[in-house]
């Protein structure tokens, strides 16, 4: 098996950024590194977003290094915009993307102490001296558990599976979750003719201050404090708050974006809130976020007692496995820091490769 210098897993925002910087740092596409993506085409997790999430309604669409993101028709679905842009990026930068490749495991190579072995569901494998895992969170929707959840006779679906608000016309729908997806769902469902209710564990925290670079750096700092302690990352909204846009302000004024408080339990025909309010419901939409998709890394035994992966000061290097770099985890799970994290991972990976190269040269000189 021919060994590579690096394998990048995932061709979303962070993975593409990492691949770009690997190439800029001197690694040759296909010969030194490859990028493995599970999707049928470009776009990362964005290609799976619901069609009604248009470009003007999507938060966090950021350009990749070296190629501007041109402003399209604001009413165009963000899934189409990003898929087109990422595809153009892959072609323009000449990135070595292989797809579809469903990575199932990353293990320590038995025949090379300096390498990791990446295996795919179709039986293929790649051996590399460094691995950058950029698998994000889309593959792991979080379904919280509540008493009576299995009794409810109505429909239940997660953000991951949402398609159209029109499917809920005339229905009474409870949206559970405190992030921006919940806000968008509530507005769309209300506009489509559904009667909506909103449940959050905590009072929603709207933010009027600008979501600028200083704010983004502060968010990354707070999230990284947890990952450097080996604790699971905070949810995106817990770290960022909610943007108080004019659209959301109007929704609050109409009573659509007003939380009814925590959910206590479900019944056969609805839900009971923590304050005792009973709701008759036809459907529940769980806008409860996602968890890091790290199942393929389980063989490496990375989890700490606190449940997270212990990260180094740079936010991308894994303390327990120096050949592995994580992007799309912790602060870079949101689009705020994904591009920057991709660059940091590429720089750290190349730095390790350079150190290994120096070691190889010394050992070769000793053997001569």
Structural key phrases:
368 residues; four-stranded parallel β-sheet; 7 helices; seven-stranded mixed β-sheet
The largest β sheet comes out as: 7 strands, mixed
Number of helices: 7
Q: Any idea what the shape is?
A: elongated
Summarize model confidence as the mean pLDDT: 88
Question: Which segments are poorly predicted (pLDDT under 50) over 5 or more consecutive residues?
Answer: none
Q: Mind explaining what this structure looks like?
A:
The protein is of the alpha/beta class. It has 7 helices and 16 strands. It has helices spanning about 15-25, 80-95, 180-190, 215-225, 235-240, 245-255, 340-365, and strands spanning about 5-10, 35, 95-100, 105-110, 115-120, 125-135, 155-160, 170-175, 195-200, 205, 240-245, 265, 270-275, 280, 285, 325. Strands 1, 2, 3, 4, 5, 6 and 16 form a 7-stranded mixed β-sheet that branches. α1 (about 15-25) links the parallel β1 (about 5-10) and β2. The longest helix has 30 residues, at about 340-365. The radius of gyration is 22 Å and the shape is elongated.
């Amino acid at each position: 098996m021919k060994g590579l210098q690096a394998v990048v897993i995932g061709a979303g925002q962070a993975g593409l950024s990492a691949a770009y910087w690997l190439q800029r740092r001197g690694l040759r596409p296909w010969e030194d590194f490859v990028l493995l993506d599970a999707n049928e085409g470009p776009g990362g997790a964005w290609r799976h977003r619901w069609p009604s999430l248009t470009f003007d309604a999507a938060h966090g669409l950021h350009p990749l290094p070296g190629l501007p993101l041109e402003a399209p028709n604001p009413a165009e679905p963000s899934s189409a915009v990003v898929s087109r842009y990422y595809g153009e990026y892959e072609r323009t930068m000449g990135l070595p993307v292989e797809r579809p490749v469903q990575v199932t495991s990353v293990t320590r190579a038995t025949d090379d102490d300096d390498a990791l072995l990446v295996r795919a569901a179709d039986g293929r494998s790649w051996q590399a001296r460094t691995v950058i895992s950029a698998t994000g969170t889309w593959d792991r929707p979080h379904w919280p558990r509540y008493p009576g959840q299995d009794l409810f006779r109505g429909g239940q679906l997660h953000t991951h599976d949402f398609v159209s608000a029109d499917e809920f016309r005339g229905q009474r729908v409870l949206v559970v979750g405190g992030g921006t997806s919940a806000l968008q769902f509530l507005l769309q469902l209300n506009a489509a003719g559904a009667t909506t209710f909103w449940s959050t564990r905590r009072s929603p925290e709207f933010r009027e201050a600008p979501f600028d670079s200083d704010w983004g750096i502060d968010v990354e700092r707070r999230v990284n404090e947890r990952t450097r302690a080996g604790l699971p990352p905070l949810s995106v909204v817990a770290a960022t708050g909610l943007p108080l846009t004019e659209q959301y302000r109007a929704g609050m004024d109409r009573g659509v974006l007003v939380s009814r408080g925590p959910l206590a339990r479900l019944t056969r025909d609805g839900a009971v809130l923590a304050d005792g309010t009973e709701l008759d419901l036809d459907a529940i939409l769980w806008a409860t976020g996602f968890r890091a998709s790290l199942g393929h890394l389980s063989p490496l035994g990375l989890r700490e007692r606190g449940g997270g992966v212990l990260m180094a000061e740079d936010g991308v290097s894994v303390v327990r496995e120096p050949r592995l770099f994580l992007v799309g985890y912790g602060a870079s799970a949101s689009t705020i820091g994904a591009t920057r994290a991709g660059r940091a991972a590429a720089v750290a990976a190349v730095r390790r490769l350079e150190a290994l190269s120096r070691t190889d040269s010394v050992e070769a000189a000793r053997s001569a």
